[in-house]
UniProtKB/TrEMBL annotation:
Pfam families: Big_1. It comes from Alicyclobacillus acidocaldarius (strain Tc-4-1). The chain crosses the membrane at residues 12-36. Keywords: Membrane, Transmembrane, Transmembrane helix. This is Ig domain protein group 1 domain protein. InterPro entries: Big_1_dom (IPR003344), Ig-like_fold (IPR013783), Invasin/intimin_cell_adhesion (IPR008964). The keyword Transmembrane applies. The keyword Transmembrane helix applies. Residues 173-259 form the Big-1 domain. It comes from the Bacteria. Belongs to the intimin/invasin family.
Length: 337
C-alpha cells in the first residue's frame, strides 16, 4: 500500500514564518483558533506570504493555532494559495475498462507528497512527490467510486485535498438459454447467450459458467465478434438443472430439464415356426436412456411370468418358445423404482 514519504531537500524553504502572539485568556475551557490565510482579514499574513513567494517561489504553509487553558497546539493545514485538482477520464465506462486519474498541484510540491485516495474502498491508489501524478483504475464489479487528491507532509498525515471525482463502472447485460429442453439422459444440450452493452454485442468478454449438476463442456468461454458465446451440457441423471452465466459480477440463469425414458415398445420376431417348436425373439425398446431408478422387463401375461428383466439397459431382448397350439400375450414394462 502506498504511504506518505519524505521528498525534497532538507534545506527546503522554512515551513513557518515565525509570528509571535501574546494571547491572554481567562476562564476554564476557553479555546481560540487562528488560521493563516492569504485570503483572510489579516493584511500582515498576506504580506508575509507574498514575501515568502518572492524569496523562495513557494507560498507559505497554513497553520492552525489552538490555545486551550494556556496550552497551544500548532498544526499545518495546507499551503496558502496552493490549489489541488483531480480529473478522471472517462468518468463513465463499462466494468473491466480502465480510467485514468490525473492529480496536480498549482505550484511546486517540493517538500510535500501527493496521493490519490479511493474513498469507496479506503485504499490509496498512488502517490508521489511530483507536482503531477496519475494512475489507471479498473473495477471488476459495477458501481461508483469516489477519488480525492491529497497533499501531505513528509511522514505525516494529509493536510489539503482536492474536490472529489466520481467514476462509474456500468454493468454488461448477459443472456443465457439452453436447447433442447426437456432433453434425454446423455443427450447433448446447447447452452448459448450474448453479452451486450447499450443494446450491442461486445466482443472478447470472458463469461464464467456454472451448473447445479451434470457436465458443462466449458466453465469459461469468450464472446465472439457479435458478443455471442456457446458451449454444451449433458446429464446422466434426470432432473431440473440450473445453468448460470456470469460477466464481471453480473449473473443470469436458465433451467434445463433432463428426463429418462417415458415410453417402451415391444416387438416379436419369429425364429422357428416348425410344428411343435414355435420360437420368437422379443425386444423391448425404451425411447431414451433409462434413469438410475428405471428398469425394463418383459412379462408373459398369459402365464403371469416375467420372462426377461428387470434390466437397466435401454434395450432388452429375449427368446421364448411357445407351447404347441398355445397363444401367448407378452407385455414390456418400463418400471420406476
Amino acid at each position: 500500500m502506498w504511504r506518505w514519504r519524505r521528498a525534497g531537500p532538507e534545506n527546503m524553504m522554512p515551513r513557518i514564518l515565525i509570528l509571535i502572539f501574546a494571547i491572554l485568556m481567562t476562564g476554564a475551557g476557553v479555546a481560540v483558533y487562528w488560521v493563516l490565510t492569504a485570503h483572510g482579514s489579516s493584511q500582515a499574513t498576506q504580506t508575509l506570504d507574498s514575501d515568502a513567494y518572492e524569496l523562495w517561489g513557494q507560498h507559505s504553509p497554513a497553520y492552525t493555532v489552538s490555545i486551550n487553558e494556556g496550552n497551544a497546539v500548532v498544526s499545518e493545514t495546507g499551503v496558502i494559495g496552493m490549489t489541488l485538482s483531480l480529473t478522471g477520464n472517462p468518468t463513465q465506462l463499462l466494468v473491466g475498462q480502465t480510467a485514468t486519474l490525473t492529480g496536480s498541484a498549482s505550484e511546486s510540491t517540493n517538500g510535500y507528497t501527493l496521493g490519490i485516495y479511493d474513498e469507496s474502498t479506503g485504499q490509496w491508489v498512488t502517490g508521489g512527490s511530483e507536482q503531477t501524478i496519475s494512475a489507471s483504475v479498473n473495477q471488476q464489479t459495477p458501481g461508483t467510486h469516489t477519488y480525492v487528491l491529497y497533499l501531505g507532509t513528509p511522514g505525516g498525515a494529509p493536510i489539503q485535498s482536492s474536490s472529489p471525482v466520481q467514476i462509474t463502472w456500468e454493468a454488461y447485460q448477459v443472456s443465457i438459454q439452453a436447447s433442447p429442453s426437456p432433453a434425454d439422459i446423455g443427450q447433448t444440450i446447447t447452452v448459448s447467450g450474448q453479452v451486450t452493452a447499450g443494446g450491442s454485442g461486445v466482443p472478447n468478454i470472458p463469461v464464467s459458467l456454472q451448473a447445479s449438476g451434470g457436465n458443462l463442456a466449458a466453465a469459461n468461454v469468450t464472446t465472439n465478434a457479435q458478443g455471442q458465446w456457446s458451449t454444451t451440457f449433458s446429464a446422466t441423471t434426470p432432473g431440473t438443472y440450473t445453468l448460470t452465466a456470469t460477466v464481471y459480477g453480473q449473473s443470469t440463469t436458465t433451467t434445463v430439464q433432463v428426463q429418462g425414458a417415458t415410453a417402451v415398445t415391444l416387438t416379436a420376431t419369429p425364429v422357428s415356426t416348425a410344428p411343435g417348436n414355435t420360437t420368437v425373439t422379443l425386444t423391448a425398446q425404451a425411447n431414451a436412456p433409462l434413469a438410475p431408478n428405471q428398469t425394463l422387463s418383459i412379462v408373459d401375461v398369459t402365464t403371469g411370468q416375467t420372462i426377461a428383466g428387470p434390466s437397466n439397459q435401454q434395450t432388452l431382448t429375449t427368446t421364448y418358445t411357445l407351447s404347441q397350439g398355445a397363444t401367448n400375450q407378452f407385455v414390456a414394462y418400463l418400471n420406476t423404482n
